[in-house]
Amino acid sequence: MHKIYISTIIKLAKYKTLITFYAIFSIINGLLCITLTPPFQVADEPNHFMRVLQIAQGNLVGIRQSKTESGALLPMTAPMFAASFNKLPFAPQEKVTADMLVKAMSLRWPSSLTFVSLPNTVIYPPTSYVGAVTGVLWAHTLHATPFGTLYLARIGNLVTNVGVSVCALLLSPEAGLFLVAILILPMSISLMASCSQDGMVLALMALGIACTLRWLREHNEQKRFVFACIGGISLGCVAAAKAPYIIMVCAPLLFLNRHNIRYALASCFNSFIVFFVWFFWGIRPTITTSAPDGASASEQFIFIVHHPIQLIEAFFRTIYKSEKYFSQQFIGVLGWLDLNFPAFVYILVKIFLIFITLTFFLSVKGFPNKKLSNLRISGLITLILSTIFGIFAALYLTWTPVGRPVIEGVQGRYFLPVVMLVALAPSLIKNTQDTQKLLPTKIYEIQKKAAVNLSVIIFMLFCYFTLYLCLLNRYW
Prior knowledge:
By secondary structure, this protein is mostly helical. It has 19 helices and three strands. The chain is 64% helix and 3% strand. It has a three-stranded antiparallel sheet with strand order 1-2-3. The radius of gyration is 23 Å and the shape is globular. The N terminus is likely disordered.
C-alpha cells in the first residue's frame, strides 16, 4: 500500500500530469458550458457571433456606413436568430422554453443579405476569432442551420483556445502553475467556451508569456529568435484586441541586458507591428463616433485637459465603489454578467488564488543582485498598474458621460490578461543555490509538489460542479 501511495504521489508531482488534467478539465467543463449556456447568453456574444460570420465570409475588415455606424453584410436570419433568446438576459425568472428552442432551430440560412450594425466588435482583429471561424467553416461544410453553426463555433473556439493554452503551459513550466490557476477560473472557461474573443485573448496572452520565458532560457540562437518573434506576435494580437493592452507588449524589456537585447527588441518590434497594422488597416476604416447617451470621446478629452485631476479621482473612486464587483467578475459572473455564484464560492476561489500565488513565489530561492531584481519587479508592477489605469482611462473617454465622477463600462474580466503578467515575476529574479535553504529530502519536495498539484485538480472539480449547478438552475 505504501509503495502504491508513493508511486501515485510521484506521478501527480509531474508537471505534465497537471497539464493533462488541465486539458481534460477544460474540454469537459467547456463542453458543459456550451451545453448548459443557451445561445447568446455570454456578454456581447450576439455581436461576437456576427463578427465571426463576417470573417468566415472572407471579410476581415468591417463596413463603415456612416460616422456612427459600422458593421457587416450578413444573412437576414442572423439578427433574427440572435433575438430568439432576448428574454433571458437580466431576467432570472425566465427559463429556456421549448418554444424558444423550436423557433431558433427552425431558422435556415437565406441567400439574401442585410446590413447588421456591430458597434463594439467590428474593430476586433481576425486573430481573436480563429477558433470560432474554424467552427463556422466546419458548419458550412455540414450545411448546418444557424443554431448548429453557433454551437460549432463555440466548440471550435474552445478547442483552439485550449490547444493554444496547452502549448503555452508546455513551453513555460516555470510559470505554468500560475497560468493554470488563471486559465481554470470559471470566467476563463466560460469565455473560452463561447464566441467571445476574450477566450482567445487569454490563450494568446499565456502563449506570449510562455514564449518570452522560453527564449530567455533557450541556448540555440535561432530558436531564441523564433520564440521571441512568436511571443511578440502573440502579445501584439492581444494588444490589437484591446488597445490599452499595448502597454503590456513592453514586458520583454524587463529582462533586457547586453546578452539578450536583440531578442527583447525583436519581440517588442513584432508586437508593435501587429498592433499598428491592424490599427491602420482594420480599426481606422471602421471606427465610429457612436457612444452611450452623454458620452463623447472628444468632449471628454477636452474635459480631462481642463480637469486632469478628475480622471485620477474617478479612477480611485470607481475602484473603491466597485472593488467587490470587479473581483467577482474576475473570478466568474456568467451569463450577461447577471449570474453570480454563491458568496462562499468567491471566498474559496480567493483563498485558492492566494495559496497558488504564495506557492508560486516560494520557488524564488535567492536574490543574486537584489538591486537589479527590485528594479525589474518595480518595472513589472508599473507595467501592470499602467495597463489597469489605461483600461479605466479608455472607458472614461469612450463610454462614460462627460464629467461623470465614476468610470462606466469597466468589467472584471478585462483584468484577467493583465494579472497573467505576474507569471513573469519569479523569472525576473535569478534563482541561486543556497544549501542552507534546500529542503531536507527529495521525498518531501515531491510530496509538497504533489499537494499543490492535487489542490489544483480538486479546484478544477470544484469549478466543474459549481458551473454545472449554477447554469442548470439559472437557465433550465
